[in-house]
Amino acid sequence: MQKTTGRPQLKENLKFFLTASMKGISQVLLIDNAVTGFFILLIITSTSIFLGIITLLSTIIGTLIGIVGGADKESVTQGLFGFNSVLTGIALALFMNGPYHWIIALLGAALAAILAAAMMHAMKPLGIPVLSAPFILITWFTLLVSYRLKAFTLTSELVPQDLARWKLDTTGKVDWTEGAFYGIGQIFFLHETIAGVLLFLAVFWAGWRLGIFAIMGNLTALLASYWLGGEHTLIFMGLYGYNGILAILAVAIVFNDNKGWIQPLLSGILAAFLTVPLTASITTLLLPYGLPALTMPFILSTWIILGARKVLPKL
Amino acid sequence: MQKTTGRPQLKENLKFFLTASMKGISQVLLIDNAVTGFFILLIITSTSIFLGIITLLSTIIGTLIGIVGGADKESVTQGLFGFNSVLTGIALALFMNGPYHWIIALLGAALAAILAAAMMHAMKPLGIPVLSAPFILITWFTLLVSYRLKAFTLTSELVPQDLARWKLDTTGKVDWTEGAFYGIGQIFFLHETIAGVLLFLAVFWAGWRLGIFAIMGNLTALLASYWLGGEHTLIFMGLYGYNGILAILAVAIVFNDNKGWIQPLLSGILAAFLTVPLTASITTLLLPYGLPALTMPFILSTWIILGARKVLPKL
Amino acid sequence: MQKTTGRPQLKENLKFFLTASMKGISQVLLIDNAVTGFFILLIITSTSIFLGIITLLSTIIGTLIGIVGGADKESVTQGLFGFNSVLTGIALALFMNGPYHWIIALLGAALAAILAAAMMHAMKPLGIPVLSAPFILITWFTLLVSYRLKAFTLTSELVPQDLARWKLDTTGKVDWTEGAFYGIGQIFFLHETIAGVLLFLAVFWAGWRLGIFAIMGNLTALLASYWLGGEHTLIFMGLYGYNGILAILAVAIVFNDNKGWIQPLLSGILAAFLTVPLTASITTLLLPYGLPALTMPFILSTWIILGARKVLPKL
User: Which residues from A are below 8 Å from C277, CB to CB?
Assistant: First the structure.
C-alpha cells in the first residue's frame, strides 16, 4: 500500500475494509461476494439482533487482524481472515453462557484469525485450503475450557456421554420441508425455515450454478442419511445436511478447475455423500466430550477429495 | 500411454492390470511380487471363500481407482493403490454384520484408495511412505459410524470400555507354536497355524532375506511382549507379533538402502521391539471406543525410524 | 569432523560432548548456555540425587544418539538432542513405579531423541521448532502402556476419570509466594520454593532479558488463571504458570528477530495468556486417560503464534 493522505484515500480504505468484512461472512459458504455477505448478515440479524452484532464484530475483528498483522492484501480482500472468526463468534456466543460469554466469543473470533494464519502457513506446501478448521479447533478447545475455569460456562445442550452406554434411537417425525431448509441454516446456527430459504437465495445471487449445486449437496446428504438409518431428530433438524452443502460447493466448484458438469457433479456428490458417515463417526468420537461435530465432516471430506485429486487428476 | 488398437494391446493391458492387482495383495506385506500376491490370495481363499472374493474384488477396485483416476503408471504397477483397499475390504467384512456388510466393505475399499492418494500427496514432501495408514483411518471411522447409522452394524467383538474400570489380566495358556505362526496370519485376519506357515513360505518365495527378517521380527515382538508381561491371550493369538513382522521388513529392507546385515538388523529389531509398547498404548487409547489397533503400531514405529533416519543417517 | 589422533583431540571431543550435554539441560528452558545447564543440574541434584543422576544420564544418552546417529554437529552442540531426553527421563522416573522404572525412564530418554530427529525432519519445511513435543508423545504413550504390560506400573497419582462425572472445585488456599516460584520448578517437576528461586537465577545468568520475560510470563499465567477461576490447588502448585514462562521465552525472545520491547512483550504475553485456557482444555481432553498435560499448552500456544507470524509478520 502506498501511503497518501486526504479523504479520497480514507474513503477507499473504508470501502476496502467493508468489502473484506462482508466477504468474511460470505466465505462461510465459500463464496467471494460482498453483497451475498451483507444479505447473510441481514438474515442473521433478522433472526437475532444479538447474533447479528456478534457476526458483524467477528468479521471486523478477523479482517482487522489480517490488516494490522500485515497479511498480503489479496487474502484479506477475499475475506479469508473473516470467516473463521464469524463462525467462532457465533458458535461460542450460542454454546456458552454467563454474563461475559460475548467477550469470550469475540476473543475466540480474534484467536480464530490467528490460528487461521498459522494453518494457512502449515498447509501452503500442500496446496489445500484450511477451510473452517481453525474455527472448529478454537471452538472445541474453548468449550472444553469450561470444565476447568469458572469464567467459562456451557449451555446445558452439551453433555459428555459414555459410548458404552449409548443407545441409537432413530424414531422421530419425518418432515422433509424442515429437512430441506434447516440444513443451510445450520451453517450459521439458525433454526428457521424462512432463514434457510433466504440463505439459498443469497447463494443463488452469487451464482445460479452455486445455488443448483448447493441444492444437490443438501439432497444427497439428506437422502443418504435417511436411507442409511440416521436419527430423524437430527436429519430433519438439518444436522446431516449442512456439511453436504459445503462439501459439494468446495469440491465441485470453488476448488475445481473443471467448468463442465459431469466431473464436478460426480466428485461433488461423492464429497456430499461422504459427509454423512463422517458426521456419524465424528459425533461418536466426540460423545465422551459432549462436543458438536460442527463443520468437521465437510472439512475431512473436502480435504480427502482435494488431496486425492493431486494424485488422481481425473477425480 | 500411447493409444493403439487391437488384441495385442488388450492382452498387454489385461496382463498389466492383473499384475498390479496381485501386487496389491503382496504389498500388504510390503512385497512387490505378483506371484507372492497370488499365493496369498489362494491362502486366504482356502481359509474362507467369502474372504477370498472380498480380497480379489478389493484389490481390483483399488487398482481401478488408480487407473481411472489417472495416477502415474508406476505407482499403479507396484500395487500401491491396491493394498490399503485389500486390508480395508477384509477388515470391514469381518468386523461388520448384517446382510449388506459386504457392500460396505467394498465401498470402504474404494474409499481407502482415494484416501491413499490424498495421503501420498500430503506425505510426498517428507519422503516417507503412507504405509497402511489409509486403511486404518477408513476402518476406524467406518466402525464408529455404526453407533449412529442403522445400516452399519458391528459384530459383538468390539465393545467400548471405560479405562477407569479396566483390569489387566495376563493369565492364560502359553502356546509358542500358535504364537509363532498366528502373527503373520493376523495381518490378513487369519487364525490358523497352517495359514501362517504358508504365508511365511510366500514371503520366502519373494526373497529369502525377507523371510529371515520376517521371522526375526516375529520373534522380537513375541519375546518382548511375553517378557514385558503382556496378556497371554493376546500374545499367543499373534496380536503382539504381526506389527513386528511388518515393521522389521519396512525398516530393515524395503525402505532401507543398506544391503548389509548389521545396521538393517539393529534398526529393524528396534522397530519390531517398538511395536510392542505401541500396541499396548494404542489399544489403551482406543479402549473407550472399542476399536482394534490394526497395523497402527507398525505404522508409528516405522514412521519414527524412517523419519529419524533423515536426520540421523546412521540409524 | 577431521580425524586426528592424540590427546588434544580427545580433550576437545570431551569438551564438546560435555558442553552439548549441559546445553541439553538448559534447552529445557530454551536457553543455549552450558553454565546455566550445569547450574540447573546442581539444583535438581540438590533436591533429589536420584533425579539428578537421571537428568545427567538422559542428556548424555540424547546427545550420544545425536552424535552416533550422525546428526549435523551444530544441532548437537546446541543441545537440541538432549532436552527432550532430559524431560522424558525425569517424567517417566517420577510417574512410573516398580524396581526397573529407571530403566524405562532411560529407554524413554533414548527414544525421545529418536522421535525428536523424526519430528525435526517433519517440521523442517514449516520453519517451526519441534520444542518439547517428542517428550510429550513418548511420555504419554509410555504411561498408557502400563494398562497392558505388567512391567510398566504407574504411580497412584494418575487416575483416569469420566468427564460426565467431573465436578470443578476451585476452593483451596491462596499462596502467592508458592505460586510465584513453583511454576518454574514444575518445568523440572520440582516442588520447592528455593528450587524455583535458584532456577530464576539460572535464567538471569543466561541473560537478564530472559529473566525479566520469564517473570512476566509467570505473572501473566498466574493472574489469568486466578482471574478466570482456575482451581487454587493447581494455580498455587505452579501448574498454570510453567507453560506461560516457556511460551513467553519462545515467542518473545528465542524465536523472535525483533530485539525491541513492544512487539516481543505483546506477542509474548499473548502466548503466555493462551497457555491458561489451553491448560484447561488439554487437561479436560486427557481426563479419561488420566494423563498430565505436561508442556503441551506451551507447545500449542507457541506453534500457533510462530506459525501465524509467517503470514502475519507484525504479530
Answer: 141-142, 145, 149, 152
